[in-house]
Design goal:
The chain is mainly beta. The chain has one helix spanning about 5-15, and strands at about 40, 40-50, 60-65, 70-75, 85, 95-100, 105-110, 115-120, 125-130, 140, 150-155, 165, 180-185, 190-200, 200-205, 215-220, 225-230, 235-245, 250-255, 265-270, 270-275, 280-285, 300-305, 310-315, 320-325. Strands 1, 2, 19, 20, 21, 22, 23, 24 and 25 form a 9-stranded mixed β-sheet that branches. The two termini are about 10 Å apart.
């Protein structure tokens, strides 16, 4: 969730807006318009329309639940309207999972500890969990970390259920005013510790397939860094700039990783996903059909159904919020299911 849209959304959400949305379902669009060597995603369904009060819609956080349905969040949804939605990828039916009055949810992932869905509340500075059915909301974490409030954006879990969160503090400040952090939150105690700080608005975050390292996308620098972690994931041993994204006015958003270690880099400001190998080679780009691109300006994230190559990307713009489907380069794992 980024760029001018992000700033507008944050300003609106922080003062508390209210409106409604609908769930139209246009017909599938045939694949067309891809450059040679690129992929064109196929329209699955429209999930949301632009909200009258906020003037936008922004789908994020795609994740497959235990029932096999795809869950997504809509960041600028007004109070009381659907904030977590379920998309049946077979019937294309869209239904409401969860809403509240104040949350501005930007990512979602299921914890391996309790199988609950954890949501980052960007504007509220907290982590909320619900059941897969959208019930029993609980605040898992809130408050300052080392004396500073958080803007939690994306999250990922290690195998033990500890949470790693990109704190995008300073997302609306000049890039040289580096205020962002990567924060580890213990899955049992909710104790928060800072793994990295003074970062230019970190956004996407995902483990490597073996959990030995983290990929961290820096929205303020259009760069993906790699962090090598110690054995229990409590310390960054080394880090380096790994991938530089030449996006012009667009900026990198969330990250997903498949079983082969490929990175699916979402982009705010372009309705496409850039896919890189773990060594930084640009493998392919996933586009929306050419005739849909003019009304869409952002692809925020990707989920690959675990154990398959069925991939789904959340795309939004003035035409609404949509889910598009494509074939991933490798199978989905936890690192490509939410965050």
């Amino acid at each position: 969730m980024r760029a001018t849209t992000t700033r507008a959304f944050a300003a609106l959400l922080l003062v508390g807006v209210a409106a409604g949305c609908s769930d139209p379902e246009p017909e599938r669009t045939e694949q067309e318009g891809a450059q040679e060597g690129e992929l064109t995603a196929e329209l699955l369904t429209q999930v949301t329309s632009v909200h009258e009060e906020t003037g936008m819609t922004l789908l994020e956080g795609p994740v497959f639940g235990p029932d096999g349905d795809l869950l997504v969040v809509d960041v600028p949804t007004p109070a009381g309207e659907p904030k977590v939605l379920r998309v049946d990828t077979e019937t294309e039916e869209v239904s409401t999972v969860f809403t509240d009055d104040t949350g501005a949810y930007t990512s979602a992932q299921f914890s391996p500890l309790d199988d609950r869905l954890y949501l980052t509340d960007f504007a509220g500075g907290k982590i909320v969990s619900i059941t897969a059915e959208g019930e029993d909301p609980e605040v898992f974490f809130s408050g300052d970390v080392d004396g500073s409030p958080m803007n939690p954006d994306d999250l990922t879990f290690d195998e033990a259920g500890n949470m790693y969160v990109s704190d995008s503090a300073g997302f609306d400040a000049p890039a040289w005013e580096e205020q962002g952090r990567v924060v580890r939150i213990d899955g049992e105690t909710a104790e928060a510790t800072v793994l990295a700080e003074d970062l230019p608005a970190p956004n996407g975050i995902a483990f490597t397939p073996d959990y030995s390292g983290l990929w961290v996308g820096l929205y303020g620098a259009n760069r993906v860094d790699h962090y090598a972690l110690n054995e229990d994931g409590t310390e960054v041993l080394t880090s380096h700039a790994a991938i530089h994204f030449d996006g012009g006015t667009s900026r990198i958003d969330s990250i997903a990783v498949d079983a082969d270690g490929n990175l699916y880099q979402a982009v705010h400001g372009q309705p496409r996903i850039f896919v890189y190998s773990s060594t930084g080679e640009h493998l392919t780009t996933v586009n929306v059909p050419e005739d849909a691109a003019s009304g869409l300006d952002t692809a925020t994230n990707v989920a690959i159904a675990p154990g398959t190559t069925d991939a789904y990307m959340t795309v939004s713009g003035e035409d609404g919020g949509f889910v598009y489907a494509f074939d991933a380069l490798a199978e989905g794992i936890r690192q490509s299911n939410g965050g």
